[in-house]
Amino acid sequence: MLSPDVVAFVRAALPAAPARVLEIGAGDGELAGVLREGGYDVLAIDPAGAAPGVQQVALNDVDVPAASFHGAVAVVSLHHVEPLAQSFQRLADLVRPGGVLVVDEFAVERFDERAARWLLGQWAAVGREASEDAPGLVAALREHIHPVSLLTEALARDFALGEPVRGPYLHRWNLPPGLRCAEEDLIAAGAVPATGARFVAVRR
CATH homologous superfamily of domain 4-110+146-175+194-203? Predict the structure, then answer.
């Protein structure tokens, strides 16, 4: 389910409608639909599937003219992008100078065993089985997901990046609504790390 705070963050960062926007890793197309209802012209892409209104294509293979977009949005998707350098070069080609890239990410480098234990406990409470214990989950995710530091390093070649804003993320991970405040309290107490990262970058 699309979180209202994600929608608010994206809308606040994008240029005004009817700007043309590229959504990277659009999934089921829910965010693209919300943006289209708001007057945006959205090209939604995702290599993993073809939901209505979403083109089944990888970022590196998007076939439109350079500088086609006023902005781009990536909600928990850049950490899967491959090949990374070539894909980010293509992204830079697609976004016109002065255009924005709006990023909402899972900071896997901050995901530790404390976070994994809390997440696994919440999953168990709703009857979801996990294939790994806490150390195994941490290792599996760190092996397969790009850290935010790598993403920002690769983007910095063509984009001016704002400092990532850290916050809660785990409550969005296949859990029932209402756990955001609990996660925020744990972060404030130092019991779990802030594994969400949001930033806005501007195409040079």
Answer: Vaccinia Virus protein VP39 (3.40.50.150)
pTM for the whole structure: 0.96
**The dihedral formed by the CA atoms of 101, 203, 153 and 167, expressed in degrees to the nearest 10:** -30
Per the CB < 8 A criterion, the answer to whether 24 and 78 are in contact is yes
The pLDDT tens digits of the residues spanning 47-96 come to 997 799 999 999 999 999 999 999 999 999 999 999 999 999 999 999 99
How many angstroms separate the Cα of 3 from the Cα of each of 9, 25, 186?
A: 10, 16, 20
Note whether 60 and 78 are within 8 A (CB): no
Which two structure tokens, joined as six digits, stand for 160? 């001016």
| Cα(68)–Cα(190) distance, integer angstroms | 44
**DSSP assignment string, 44-112:** EE-TT---TTEE---GGG--S-TT-EEEEEEES-GGG-SSHHHHHHHHHHHEEEEEEEEEEEE-GGG--
